[in-house]
């Protein structure tokens, strides 16, 4: 599956939640709700960290974790 499909699905999923959802790739922090931010970041085979804070954080972590693994992206959800 292409990264474009992953980016659109991640952004759409993130936008369902009120929580702050930030992806850390090396020393960059990207708002997962921003398609443009994801386009410039989800390149190469980085290990990503997902930081989620807010009222629906647990649900957001589960759904986004599933989307990352579905697209074969290496992400660690940080508590």
List the helices and strands and how they pair.
Blueprint: H1 3-14, E1 20-25, E2 28-31, H2 35-41, E3 48-53, H3 57-70, E4 75-78
Parallel strand pairs: 3-4
Antiparallel strand pairs: 1-2, 1-3
Helix pairs in contact: 1-3
What integer is the average pLDDT?
90
Number of helices: 3
Biggest β-sheet description: 4 strands, mixed
Uncertain stretches: none
| Percent helix | 40-55%
Protein name: HPr family phosphocarrier protein
Domain HPr: 9-69
InterPro entries: HPr-like (IPR000032), HPr-like_sf (IPR035895)
Structural summary, described in words:
This protein is of the alpha+beta class and 79 residues long. It has one domain (3-78): HPr-like (Histidine-containing Protein, Chain: A), CATH 3.30.1340.10. It contains 3 helices and 4 strands. The chain has helices spanning 3-14, 35-41, 57-70, and strands at residues 20-25, 28-31, 48-53, 75-78. The protein has a 4-stranded mixed sheet with strand order 2-1-3-4, covered by helices on one side. A hairpin with a 2-residue loop joins strand 1 (20-25) and strand 2 (28-31). Helix 1 runs antiparallel to helix 3. The radius of gyration is 11 Å and the shape is globular. The model has no long low-confidence stretch (mean pLDDT 90). It comes from Cohnella suwonensis. InterPro entries: HPr-like (IPR000032), HPr-like_sf (IPR035895). This is HPr family phosphocarrier protein.
């Amino acid at each position: 599956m292409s990264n474009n499909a992953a980016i659109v699905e991640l952004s759409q999923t993130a936008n369902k939640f009120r929580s702050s959802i930030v992806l850390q790739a090396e020393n960059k922090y990207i708002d997962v709700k921003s398609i443009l931010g994801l386009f410039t970041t989800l390149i190469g085979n980085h290990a990503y960290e997902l930081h989620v804070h807010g009222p629906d954080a647990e649900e957001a972590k589960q759904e986004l974790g599933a989307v990352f693994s579905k697209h074969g992206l290496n992400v660690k959800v940080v508590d």
